[in-house]
Design goal:
The complex is a heterodimer of chains A (284) and B (246). Chain A has 284 residues and is α/β, with parallel strands linked by helices. Chain A folds into 2 domains: 2-89 and 172-276, 3-Layer(aba) Sandwich (Rossmann fold), CATH 3.40.50.300; 96-170, no CATH class. Helix content of chain A is 37%, strand content 25%. A 6-stranded mixed β-sheet of chain A has the order 7-8-9-3-10-11, with helices on both faces. The longest helix of chain A is centred in the C-terminal third of the chain and has 18 residues, at 185-202. Chain A starts with a strand and ends in an 8-residue tail after the last helix. In chain B, the strands form 2 sheets. In chain B, strands 6-7-8-3-9-10 form a 6-stranded mixed β-sheet, sandwiched between helices. The longest helix of chain B is centred in the last third of the chain and has 18 residues, at 173-190. In chain B, helix 4 packs across helix 5. Classes of the chains: A alpha/beta (284), B alpha/beta (246). At the A-B interface, helix 7, helix 8 and helix 10 of A face helix 6, helix 7, helix 8, helix 9 and helix 10 of B. The complex binds adenosine-5'-triphosphate (ATP) (2 copies) and magnesium ion (MG) (2 copies). One magnesium ion is lined by residues 45-46, 95, 177 of chain A.
């Protein structure tokens, strides 16, 4: 079942030197699945995620034939209606987690506030719930963390707190932008299993933006590979290691491997033709 | 030969029930031209060790020596020419209203360079951004592009020790390969010394000769890269970490 249908999405930034096309006519659908977006730095992954929520700051411009959620076109919604979509239906974990938290409020105040916005419960019930949520993302000393401010958190703690907060509204769709890039493998596993449960048990749709190819191959169902604002290849995650496109193969070859030490890593030789080929559709 | 020596380093924050002993009696040393990895649990004190070396934590005890000279409570200006850090969070570490050109130009000027124009262009080339990014502001950059500006800024003073906190975790693998190759070249050309925090053991394995594993504020094990490759860790936590990564 299709939750989200994105057709011909463009994100453009006009400047004095001309218009920069950050996303160039991308199309894909999202079902009750784990859909990964991979691709090199600057290829438009974050802009794609933000454009779905219409979170591109001016002077950036978003256009699309449609971005429909449950059959309703988000492009036609007013800013006020979009605010409800962002709060309730689609959550996004931003790439810069600590930036998204309020620096002058304690972690506890922020989680409790967010929880009570969506659930009619007393402050003390919300407090208990908040502790439980922090424990679920493997925060060691949740009571102390509740009283702390965002700048007192380590990189990975900030990421885990944001993930916990974004799951509060029980979203239909979660867009997670590099959500585990600062986590060690064991904590990462715990966080991913929480997200995974929501996809399998509740049918949430997940857009998982990541540059960790091994992780994506393991954790996701389908992968969109982006290059300079376009999708150059779409494949099943389990087949990622046999990807066909020379760009994807180049990405895989540039990974360091513990078992094969070498002095220099392979780097990509970019071919201009990659960016000229029309975008591959990720719609099913 | 020892370029960086950390003895009995402890760091704590806050007091009373909110006291956090973020680092407890850490010991390690890094030889000149060597590369040392710090890995371990999220929240275990890896960034705090690097910040303590840079003089960015309020409370610490122990001894931190650079090139056999213990640092004082306050770092000299010469310290910052010798030791530079790339921070974990590229969003917080760049001033939002300073263009890339200002960030790099001011750093170069502060460290006494005068051929600033040429150096800014060279630095941007080195980190794979190129001159077209020179007049951009942080909000006009993707996550990985910001991280590369932060790396360029740290390289600007031509330091002899570089502290790298998850330098490539915001980068895709192709840019990661380019940055790691650049760091390898700089090390062999200029004998730079690195301390590198990463949760990616294959990155640490590629870059470092030895590494420390941290858990809950303590270094539980120091091992060489062969031990890492052969997954022969001693401590229960490092065993678990290695097993999960292979
Ligand atoms: N305000 C802006 N003005 C001009 N260009 C911009 C602006 N914001 C982003 N860009 C450009 O848009 C492109 C796509 O950015 P995006 O953040 O989507 O990249 P990304 O794929 O998420 O990369 P990363 O993996 O590094 O986070 C980048 O080249 C970036 O420099
Ligand atoms: N300014 C601060 N005030 C209070 N506590 C702090 C402060 N900075 C760090 N801490 C605490 O110190 C501990 C270690 O944090 P640190 O940032 O060193 O972890 P880390 O090993 O780098 O983790 P990560 O891999 O998640 O980045 C954490 O419990 C953190 O909450
Ligand atoms: Mg991004
Ligand atoms: Mg850290």
């Amino acid at each position: 079942m299709t939750l989200l249908d994105v057709e011909n999405l463009w994100v453009q930034f006009p400047s004095r030197q001309g218009v920069f096309d950050a996303v160039r006519g991308v199309s894909f659908t999202l079902g009750r699945e784990r859909l990964a977006i991979v691709g090199e730095s600057g290829s438009g992954k974050s802009m794609t995620g933000r454009a779905i929520l219409r979170l591109i700051r001016p002077p950036g411009i978003v256009t699309a034939d449609q971005i429909s959620l449950d059959g309703i076109d988000l492009m036609k919604k007013s800013e006020r209606e979009m605010r409800d979509v962002r709060g309730q239906k689609i959550s996004m974990v931003m790439q810069d987690p600590k930036f998204s938290l309020n620096p002058v409020m304690t972690i506890g105040q922020q989680i409790i506030e967010a929880y009570r916005l969506h659930n009619k419960v007393s402050k003390s019930a919300a407090f208990d719930k908040a502790i439980e949520m922090l424990e679920a993302v493997s925060i060691r000393d949740p009571e102390r963390v509740m009283r702390a401010y965002p700048h007192e958190m380590s990189g990975g703690m900030g990421q885990r707190i944001m993930i916990a907060m974004m799951l509060i509204p029980n979203p239909e769709i979660l867009i997670a932008d590099e959500p585990t890039s600062a986590l060690d493998v064991s904590v990462q596993g715990q966080v991913l299993s929480i997200i995974d449960k929501l996809v399998t048990d509740r049918g949430m749709g997940l857009i998982f933006i990541s540059h960790d190819l091994n992780l994506v191959a393991d954790f996701c169902d389908r992968v969109l590979i982006m290059y300079l604002g376009r999708i150059v290849e779409v494949c099943d995650a389990k087949n990622l290691h046999n990807a066909k496109h020379p760009y994807t193969q180049g990405l895989l070859n540039s990974l360091p491997r513990l078992s094969e030490p070498r002095r220099k890593l392979d780097v990509l030789n970019r071919n201009p033709a990659w960016s000229e080929a029309p975008s591959v559709s990720g719609r099913v | 030969m020892t370029m960086l020596n950390i003895e009995n380093l402890s760091v704590w924050f806050g007091g009373g029930r909110d006291r956090v002993d973020a680092v407890r009696s850490a010991n390690f040393h890094v030889n000149r031209g060597a590369s040392f990895g710090l890995v371990g649990e999220s929240g275990s004190g890896k960034s705090t060790i690097l910040r303590a070396i840079m003089g960015l934590v309020p409370n610490w005890s122990g001894t931190i020596s650079v090139d056999a000279t213990p640092v004082g409570k306050k770092r000299e200006k010469t310290f910052y020419k010798a030791v530079q850090m790339v921070f974990q969070d590229p969003y917080a570490s760049l001033h939002p209203r300073h263009s890339v050109d200002q960030v790099l130009g001011e750093t170069l000027y502060l460290h006494g360079f005068r051929d600033i124009d040429a150096r800014v262009v060279k630095l941007l080339d080195d980190v794979g951004l190129g001159a077209k990014f020179r007049f951009r502001y942080p909000h006009q950059l993707s996550g990985g592009q910001r991280q590369r500006v932060a790396i360029a800024r740290a390289l600007a003073p031509e330091p002899s020790i570089l502290l790298l906190d998850e330098p490539t975790s915001a980068l895709d693998v192709s840019i990661q390969a380019e940055i790691l190759n650049l760091l390898t070249d700089l090390r062999s050309e200029h004998g730079l010394t690195y301390v590198m925090v990463s949760h990616d053991l294959s990155v640490v394995g590629h870059m470092c000769e030895s590494l420390a594993v941290m858990k809950d504020g303590e270094i539980v094990e120091i091992m060489d890269v062969e031990t890492l490759r052969n997954a022969q860790a001693q401590h229960a936590y490092s065993k678990k970490l290695l097993a999960a990564s292979i």
